[in-house]
Design brief:
Layout: E1 8-15, E2 19-24, H1 100-116, E3 124-127, H2 131-134, E4 138-148, E5 152-162, E6 166-172, E7 175-179, H3 180-190, E8 194-199, E9 204-208, E10 215-221, E11 226-233, E12 239-243
Length: 245
């Protein structure tokens, strides 16, 4: 029986088992927050000196190898951005009383926009389930495609559990899009004293989540040394570059 009151859409997201983003219906943007809990000993002497500790290194904080000290500086360095490439400004999310499939449509497009780093107003979504079918109680599995300008299509595999008061959805995307401006921004920001940067991609590229073999770029540092870097989407949706081993 189709519920008489509109269902509330709650979306729990895990892309390819690595990309975790919390999506709440009606919100205009996604937000990933890393919470780190630190414990202290209540009986510890407050005046006692405490040893300095460091957080364990992560992929995103791993420095690139510096050039050989014996090589002279021959090229001027590029100005390196201080912050990560920002998420684009997007329209307001649909209201809570909007049909569930319409709100899902917006949520999937926004995931693609944030990964891309660009708002694509011509993006379209096509799901192989109807609004009436999604309103039926029970479990449903279906797919949705987000078509972006430039012929790029992002495929989402979705599992839905429809209850009496809400719809819980989990999606899985093996690939997410990245724009060339975002890739060059992050490559310049993360590489060691770059003088020139280049990526082998068109305006948009689908990048496999959790793998660093799909986006290849080259950095020429201030000594004229060329280094290949591979881009990878992490589980928080950020794009990082690591030098080839």
């Amino acid at each position: 029986m189709k519920p008489t009151a509109p269902l509330r859409l709650l979306t729990a997201i895990a892309a390819a088992g690595t990309l975790g983003v919390a999506v709440a219906a009606g919100l205009g943007a996604f937000d990933s927050t890393l919470l780190v809990a630190h414990s202290t000993n209540a009986n510890e002497d407050a005046n006692a000196p405490k040893p300095k500790t460091q957080d364990p290194p992560t992929k995103s904080s791993a420095p690139s190898p510096p050039p050989s000290p014996s090589k002279p500086v021959t090229l001027p360095a590029l100005k390196q951005p201080a912050k990560a490439f920002p998420n684009p400004k997007v329209p307001k999310a649909p209201d809570d009383d909007t049909p569930e499939l319409t709100r899902l449509d917006f949520s999937l497009r926004q995931i693609a926009w944030n990964s891309l780093g660009v708002y694509d107003k011509k993006a379209e979504t096509d799901c192989d389930i109807s609004e009436s079918k999604l309103a039926e109680r029970g479990d449903h599995s279906f797919a949705c495609d987000v078509m972006l300008t430039g012929g790029i299509t992002v495929r989402y595999e979705i599992d839905a559990t429809v209850g009496t008061k809400d719809v819980k959805l989990k999606w899985n995307a093996t690939y997410l899009p990245v724009s060339k401006p975002k890739a060059l921004h992050e490559l310049t920001r993360q590489s060691y004293k770059p003088a020139k940067v280049a990526c082998s991609m068109e305006a948009l590229k689908l990048v496999k989540v959790g793998k660093n073999d799909g986006l290849s770029c080259t950095v020429t540092d201030i000594t004229g040394t060329n280094t290949t870097y591979f881009g990878e989407l992490l589980n928080d949706g950020s794009l990082i570059f690591l030098p080839a081993k």
